[in-house]
């Protein structure tokens, strides 16, 4: 429902360093910049170290995360923006990027999905705005929660 607020979990606390890779598609540059600003602020607030890499479009984000899994990161933040055009390509970019991120998650990658899928540029702008819906920050928080969960169960097995 438009305007309905949702519950937000507190950020997890960590007793060891956390390294997070932000993978962003700056297909819509101003939107992407806002998403990265929001994600960085949330990672900073949790004391996590952030690195950023860029890929051309949303379809490349999951592949880049798959490649970067060899880099020793604890988590990943997937950022980008898909705006409906005239053809069915919108559905391909939205569905395939989302599905691939979900599959990586099921393999144990700690990923927050902040790829916006919208009808208009204005919808994207209010969602990316760090002082607005801050979806970049939300995706970073999601990644951190999965990192915390991974560490919790790793400890329980040790
Ligand atoms: N239309 C959008 C794209 N399309 C490009 C694809 O993501 C991809 O880079 C291309 O098909 C080459 O593999 N990407 C976005 O991020 N946002 C769009 O709205
Ligand atoms: C989401 C897209 O891929 C979109 O930008 C493509 O636009 P179109 O369907 O007009 O080619």
TrEMBL record:
Species this protein is from: Silicimonas algicola
EC number per UniProt: 2.5.1.78
Keywords recorded for this protein, A-Z: Riboflavin biosynthesis, Transferase
Family from the record: Belongs to the DMRL synthase family.
GO biological process: riboflavin biosynthetic process
Name the record gives this protein: 6,7-dimethyl-8-ribityllumazine synthase
InterPro entries xrefs: LS, LS/RS, LS/RS_sf
Organism ancestry: Bacteria, Pseudomonadati, Pseudomonadota, Alphaproteobacteria, Rhodobacterales
Pathway in which the depicted protein is active: Cofactor biosynthesis; riboflavin biosynthesis; riboflavin from 2-hydroxy-3-oxobutyl phosphate and 5-amino-6-(D-ribitylamino)uracil: step 1/2
Catalysed reactions listed for this entry: (2S)-2-hydroxy-3-oxobutyl phosphate + 5-amino-6-(D-ribitylamino)uracil = 6,7-dimethyl-8-(1-D-ribityl)lumazine + phosphate + 2 H2O + H(+)
Chain residues that bind (2S)-2-hydroxy-3-oxobutyl phosphate: 86-87, 127
SUPFAM superfamilies, sorted: Lumazine synthase (SSF52121)
């Amino acid at each position: 429902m438009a305007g309905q607020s949702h519950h937000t979990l507190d950020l997890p606390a960590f007793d060891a360093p956390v390294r997070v890779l932000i993978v962003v598609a700056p297909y819509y540059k101003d939107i992407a910049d806002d998403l990265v600003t929001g994600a960085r602020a949330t990672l900073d607030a949790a004391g996590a170290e952030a690195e950023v890499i860029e890929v051309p479009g949303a379809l490349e984000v999951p592949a880049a995360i798959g490649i970067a899994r060899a880099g020793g990161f604890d988590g990943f933040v997937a950022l980008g923006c898909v705006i409906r055009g005239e053809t069915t390509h919108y559905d391909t970019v939205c569905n395939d990027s989302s599905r691939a991120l979900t599959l990586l998650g099921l393999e144990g990658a700690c990923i927050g999905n902040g790829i916006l899928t919208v009808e208009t540029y204005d919808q994207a702008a209010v969602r990316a705005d760090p002082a607005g819906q801050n979806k970049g920050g939300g995706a970073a928080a999601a990644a951190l929660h999965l990192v915390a969960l991974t560490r919790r169960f790793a400890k329980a097995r040790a």
